[in-house]
Amino acid sequence: MDKLVIRGNGPLHGKICISGAKNAALPILMACIMPNGPIELTNVPKLADINTSCKLLNILGCETTFENGTVRIECGQRNHEAPYDLVRTMRASVLCLGPLLATLGEAKVALPGGCAIGARPVDLHLKGLEALGATFELTEGYIEGRCDGLKGAHITFDFPSVGATEHILMAASLAEGESILENCAREPEVTDLANFLNACGAKISGMGTSILTVQGVPELKGCKYKVMADRIEAGTYMVAAAITDGELFLEDCPFHEMDAVAYKLREMGVWIHEKPTGVLVRRGTELVGVDVNTRPHPGYPTDMQAQITALMCLAKGASTVEENIFENRFMHVMEMVRMGADIRIKGRTAMIRGVDRLMGAPVMASDLRASASLVLAGLAAKGTTEVRRIYHLDRGYENIEQKLNGAGADIRREKQ
Predict the structure, then answer these.
(1) pLDDT (tens digit, 9 = 90+) per residue, 127-137?
(2) Burial of residue 271, with CB atoms counted within 10 A of its CB: 0-12 exposed, 13-18 middle, 19 or more buried
(3) Residue 80: what are its φ and ψ, rounded to 5°?
(4) Is the pLDDT of residue 369 over 50?
């Protein structure tokens, strides 16, 4: 197992190129089970979760190669079983269930794993697939599903779940007749999946709204498609510029998908300027405390909660963060307290009072975004910070230490 050793090295300056979005690439990869014909995906980030997805596709009968940011896929004789050893490491693996049902009429998929940030049950996924005509049994840690052809349905989600919206969107693309999906997640990654499916011949409308309409088609075909840039990675590097009092140019930044994050950072005193090829970010004035409430898109994203919490630790005055998406997403807080942060937790709210400086310390990463927040805190801290258990970080950030070191950071990877 690796760790990152970070020595506070002053302001960051330079250019960082934003990678393709993990949260868009993973569902698109699962959707690649359905088309007949070759698929070429570009701008795919080199991450542990992407490698896991490619291994899973190979097991499911889709020949997959991944090289230089491009994934090529061609499905042959598909296999209906997704084994526990792969699915347990990555929650997005459960998204193969709907595509397998749509193409084979049967599927056996292990219950998923992933980050320990909350329950995140698959009930909404199964409920939506049942409305399309599937039946399920839970046996020995596996979900076994069957259907005699999926049929279009009118489905209203109890909560605008990103995963459930994506899952039902995929299955409905090959269902007979029309499906109307209400209270859908509006995240840009959902739109990216819908755009990919349409490029394969699906008929989906309403992208970016809470109501998606799907006209089922008998077949999807292969295509070439570029995955969107990662708005969470871009937001993380925006915070890196601000927390070190530096200046970074973020190339290929998906700025128009980041309104809530940009608004809060500007409110804190961060200067953000859009240019034709990217976004320039620096600390504009003294950082001041703000209040953040995580919400489904277009609200403030839960995946940027831990990062802005790190920035609040050095802001003047008080800040609050209310976490409304996941019930267990403050595990980074106690590690920041070890670094000198003044944070108190009450229920779903973190109350932060800014301090003059953070001090380096050994800290433990609990999940993907917590890992990123501890790296950010280490960049701004006096002395040396060791971030342990960084396998979470490798699931969601492509070459993070190389990108930051290229902008003046002092980070090295060591065996733990």
Answers:
(1) 999 999 999 99
(2) middle
(3) -95, 0
(4) yes
Per DSSP bridges, beta strands 362-364 and 224-226 are unpaired
Judge whether 288 and 269 are in contact, CB under 8 Å. Answer: yes
Confidence of residue 121 (pLDDT cuts 50, 70, 90): low
Is the overall model pTM greater than 0.85, yes or no?
A: yes
Handedness of CA 250, 370, 293, 118 (dihedral sign): positive
Pairing of strands 362-364, 384-388: parallel
Choose the catalytic residue: 32, 54, 75, 115: 115
pLDDT of 112 strictly over 80: no
CA 57 to chain centre: 20
Which domains, from first to last, does the chain contain? Answer: 2-19+229-415 (3.65.10.10), 22-226 (3.65.10.10)
- Distance between CA 124 and CA 30 in Å, rounded? 18
Q: Any catalytic annotation for residue 32?
A: no
**DSSP E strands: which ranges in 269-332?**
270-275, 278-283, 291-293, 318-322
DSSP assignment of 201-254: T-EEE-TTSS-EEEE--S--B--EEEPPB-HHHHHHHHHHHHHTT-EEEEET--
What are the strands of the beta sheet with 318-322, ordered from one edge?
Answer: 291-293, 318-322, 349-353, 342-346
- In angstroms, what CA-CA distances link 271 with 52, 157, 258, 313? 38, 38, 14, 18
**What pLDDT digit, counting tens, does each position of 149-173 carry?**
999 999 999 999 999 999 999 999 9
Q: Give per-residue burial for 217-235: e unless 16+ CB within 10 Å, then b.
A: beebebbebbbbbbbbbbb
- Say whether pLDDT at 113 is over 70: no
Sheet containing strand 410-415, strands side by side? 362-364, 384-388, 2-7, 410-415
327 has a pLDDT exceeding 50: yes
What distance in Å separates the CA atoms of residue 69 and residue 72, rounded to the nearest whole number?
A: 10
Cis ω before 276 (30° cut-off from 0)? no
The two structure tokens encoding residue 123: 């009930």
395 in helix, strand or coil? coil
